[in-house]
# Entry
Amino acid sequence: MCGIVAYVGPKDAGPILLEGLQRLEYRGYDSAGVVISNKGLKMRKVKGRVADLAAAVPARFKGTLGIGHTRWATHGAPSDVNAHPHLSADERIAVVHNGIIENADELRAKLEADGVVFLSETDTEVLSHLIARTVEETESLEEAVRLALKRIVGTYGIAVIDAQRPGEVVVARNGSPIVLGIGEKEMFAASDVSALVRYTRQVVHLEDGELAVLKADGFHTFASDARETAKEPLTVDWDAGHYDTGGYEHYLLKEISEQPDTVARTLRGRLDDRFHIAHLGGLNMDARETRSFRRVKIIGCGSAYYSGQIGAQLIEELARIPADAEPASEFRYRSPVVEPDTLYVAISQSGETYDTLAAVQELKRKGGRVLGIVNTVGSAIARECDGGLYLHAGPEVSVASTKAFTSTAVAFALLALHLGRVRDLSPADGRRICEGLRRLPEQIKEILALEPQIKELAHKYADSPSMMFVGRVRGYPVAREGAQKLKEISYVHAEAYPASELKHGPLALIGPEMPTVAIVPDDELLDKNLTTLGEIRARGGRVLMVGHRTADPKLADDCVVVPKNETELDPILLSIPLQLLAYHAAVALERDVDKPRNLAKSVTVE
Ligand code: F6R
# Structure
């Protein structure tokens, strides 16, 4: 979604802001802009790419303080005028904003009645006028910003500069992330650490309601009641190299290919071969507490939710605790019953998905115990949870989630092992799972070696108007994620169904024009799955089977055979060929693989 960068220090701000905006491109945007302070505010903004903005910024735009933005249109169409920054009428104040101001229409009407002329259709412009109205009377820009924010209903991450205070930037957060970057006699701020890591690894995350004043020599943070807050900087272990394509044609392919390493990182230091348990110190729970839960409820959005379905299955199988997953976006709105003996687990790659964050906050309000399975260290969801596991999968740049999905499923296997071993999972089964987990990285390499075959299959099936994905029990979340990957990056319509449900309705869709991708592991349901394939073939449907053996050509047109692991862990491996299938279908259809239309990397709005 929208991105923010800000700089104050001794260097020329323009190139730093443009580089930062380029790093944020992966989040999805439609226009971009920068403003630099140097004897007045110098602004350029364009509809289009950051490269278009860079071409439009004149060489004479020099200055050591500035803010920049990539916009994802909400109020008003993508256009040069609606792009951020937005200036006050006297061009003294400039604002960039992520989020949505819900009472913007009402505030705009009041300001217009007072004679303010608006240039754009955006909700953000309200803020620049509100700040400009009080800045004359207040002692500081910080106070003017705080007074303006008091009148706002909605979510925001903002950065503000004042032409008459050329040494400071004010940033604030409520529901939309802001991270400060601490440099040597220079300060940065951004909506995402990716824009900062080239310059510094020392960061500070703002909490909701916090505001910060940045000057070249440091920063101060304040709560909404103006009390100064104390913040400990965090060191991020992601570097700029993580944000390069590393010689791959797309980030997506790079991230799929990284999975042997990223899975190894998720596992590192967490498996105990003596007692066949998982070491998960970050859960902050002793064995007695761990045993006290009678249910597990998992929440997340999109692919995170599907990985949660794999997680629920793992927890039920290994720990024998009833577990289920639900979209966080639904959970938060249905006034959930929060029980003291339920363990809640929130999943998020970005750690900033608004629906998931709001669901966690609702759980906390009601006294729920919430663990986070999160990739981004120090992110809002990680901070909000009582404990959890980081994925350590490195930054995921491509909009479609792959390595974070896989690492989340692996993290659930660790959690299920942990919950199981403090209950009834035997040492022998614990050992079996530990050994299975250790085999995953090598087995993922074997699956990646199937890429030429999967590419060919993607070309064969990519021109289908629609595809069905089916799986039973452990295979069903794999099918759902496979359908999600295909539709989001190739725009081919795809539906996922439990294989057992086909005959209760969707079988009517099956015919030569609707191929089926069937997830058929070698488990206790193999025969049932093969019967389903027979039913599909009998209706003239084509079948691409993903499983552990080749099928009779009467049952499947094509087979992708993946290595077998322990039955409970097989869904982790079965998902990987579907990532490659979606990737190569999207490339064959010439889609914008890393930035699919209408999607953003982290959805920080409702
Ligand atoms: C799909 C995808 C999305 C995300 C979802 C949650 O490929 O990336 O469905 O999984 O928006 O995002 P996080 O995990 O950042 O909370």
